[in-house]
Amino acid sequence: MGIGGIIWMIVVGFVVGLLARFFYPGAVGMGFWMTTLLGIGGSLVGGVIGSLLWKSPDGRFKPAGLFLSIVGALILIWGYLNVWRA
Questions:
Q1: Domain limits at 39?
Q2: What does the alpha-carbon distance between residue 17 and residue 36 come to, in Å, rounded to a whole number?
Q3: pLDDT tens for residues 29-42?
Q4: How far apart are CA 40 and CA 10, in angstroms?
Q5: How many domains does the chain have?
Q6: pLDDT band for position 82 (50/70/90)?
């Protein structure tokens, strides 16, 4: 993964994190980096959910698409606000 891939991952993670924060009820106080990490982690969690529901033909793990990434990020927001920060 080159520098372009890393930059793209940060941009997509930030967008997914922003969308998840928008859909989460109530105020979610996080900065840029926490929102970005939340979006990247949401993609990984969404990928796990997707691999449990639909098996990949080649058996490899793949990060989730936009919808499951947002679902994964919402799960991480809930965990961050209710478990880790409590």
A1: 3-84
A2: 6
A3: 888 888 888 988 88
A4: 8
A5: 1
A6: confident
